[in-house]
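Annex B. Sample input.
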Amino acid sequence: MKSWKTILFIVAALGLATCLALLAYLASRSHSPSSSTITQQDGATPLKPDPYMQDLSIPPFHFTDQLGRSIDQEQLLGNVTLINFMFTNCVTICPLMTGTTLELNNRLADTNARFISISVDPEHDTVEKLADYANKFSADPERWRFATGDRDQVLTILRDGLMFDLSFDPSASSAIQLADGSSMPNIIHPSRYFLVGPKGTILGMYNYEDDQQLDALVQRVQAIDTILKNN
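Annex B, continued. Sample output.
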């Protein structure tokens, strides 16, 4: 009799262990996303605006690029675009940031990414001046456009759309000497890249001096470009 009781005990124990293992397996499947779900979430992430970006926007604009072509907000649709601000007489951050933009162009050469550098000094930055500046950086005009236009439109984009200010440095020591012998005050403007998605929405903002942010920017643009090409 004792042997039968022992056998029954073992069978019952094995059955209980099997049931517990099965329940644990089912529980793990019910709480873990499938691999397809993970892929879909990861694929959508690059196009989701970063926190606080939903408060920013690019208001309608109408500028002229370095070849005299019209450029407006319609050019932001369908592709991923990097926007930054500069002016050709700048002797501080602008040459550095424009050099970084050239590097980003090279790193993203296999994508359909577009670049727009908007002048904050339309009084001096004529189409001809922008063309000369763009040529110094070997900018491809089909991919990288330098824009100039009405100053009020620039202010509207910066202050109303991107929540950044634009001001003149009153310090005489920071005055910029121009080629004709005159001078102008330095212009204080944002030194960020604004990542614009294919629907014209602001997705993120990146510091041109931060290598980690730039690497993340490149990876994000590549991911978005892949999504757009596959759709």
